[in-house]
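Hello,

Our lab assistant flagged a job as stuck in the queue for most of the afternoon. It eventually completed. Since we weren't sure the result was trustworthy after the delay, we are filing this so someone can double-check. Below is the sequence as submitted and the structure that was eventually returned. Let us know if re-running is recommended.
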Amino acid sequence: MAFPIQRLRRLRQHEALRRMVRETTLSPADFIYPLFVVEGRDRREEITSMPGQFRLSIDLLIKEAAEIKALGIPAIILFGIPNKKDERGTSGYDPNGIVQRAIKAVKDHVPGLAVITDVCIDEYTDHGHCGIVKDGKILNDETLDCLRTMARTHAEAGADMVAPSDMMDGRVAAIRAELDQAGFSELPIMAYAAKFSSCFYAPFRDAAYSSPQFGDRQSYQMDPANGREALREIDLDVEEGADIVMVKPAMPYLDIIAKARTRTLLPIAAYQVSGEYSMIKAAGRAGWLDDTRAMMESLLAIKRAGADLILTYFAKDAVRQLH
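-- returned structure --
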């Protein structure tokens, strides 16, 4: 039975009806807010390619974290920018490293806010790659030792969750074993399960000074052309002990989020990455679109596709719109 008996516009006539039948909604609890932390005091450096985002020293990070909690956002994820980098990224797994100290500070000053940590050495290596390099090749198994230690030091500092983003094979199992052995069997792992080799990461690399100094990351991050392989990556991370699986980037890979949602009962996270954020910001500043509506529409699309959690630099602005 079709038109004129069925008229789908009947339920679109005014806001009350639209709200009553709305299928997808956003909540502050959906969001995780990424933060960049640097050494020093009273440092607040705007990231040129990410308008409205900053590198913050720990003292200012605490204030930002308090504002985030007050908005009802339940969690942050920390990315560290050290003063010194080396070929093995040793500052990333130093128990007194920048992220380890930031974790302790946030837990001390902003109780109740969940602190998630990125586990990857690219921000700490002088070559900018996510693994140990030998003769121009990224070494998988040797990198796992660094990741184990980094995850353990984050746990010891008080992290509520660790999130390996390196895309080395076997890293979820290695981190799970390390955490369990160290007495952190209750600490969850959010695995960057399907992380694609994407040009949309460029502003982040500017923010973290983490661009590769040679080559690219295609030997470990995923080929954007491959959907079935993404599902294999997700299956393996689930098998290795991941508690949450992530798809990254979000908007160009909504199909992967949707397929993952039908494949696993685990919570699914999606990272609306720096390039997605910066494109909307730039278009809004140029007057080419309504950046507030574009922000909310993009977040709804990610949620509608099947994501339970959204890592996004828009989290604060989005929550203000929801209020």
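-- support follow-up --
The delay was a queue issue, not a problem with the job. The result is valid. The chain has a mean pLDDT of 95. The chain is about 40% helix and 20% strand.
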